[in-house]
Write a structure and sequence with these properties.
transmembrane helix; transmembrane; mainly alpha; plasmid
Amino acid sequence: MPHFLIFALMFAFHHFLSTRASVYWGAIIPGAYLVYCGWIFTSHQVDHPIKLTLLLLLGLGMFLTNWEKGRKIFKEKQKNELNKMKTQDI
């Protein structure tokens, strides 16, 4: 259960960073994940390289999908804010 909680908190924090104005904030967690997986691979802490490759692709895919969703949410918020400003100008 604690692993699930850590993973959920990490995804929540990543979602928060992905919805910020700068696109680079959302790249912090996937970049750290890549470094972590690279460290595991180079220090030979995994039983089989295919297992690590699958975990790397699965985790990275999840983070990048979450990042893309966060960027869409940010763009929608920005668009809604511009529409509000335009309607108040009239």
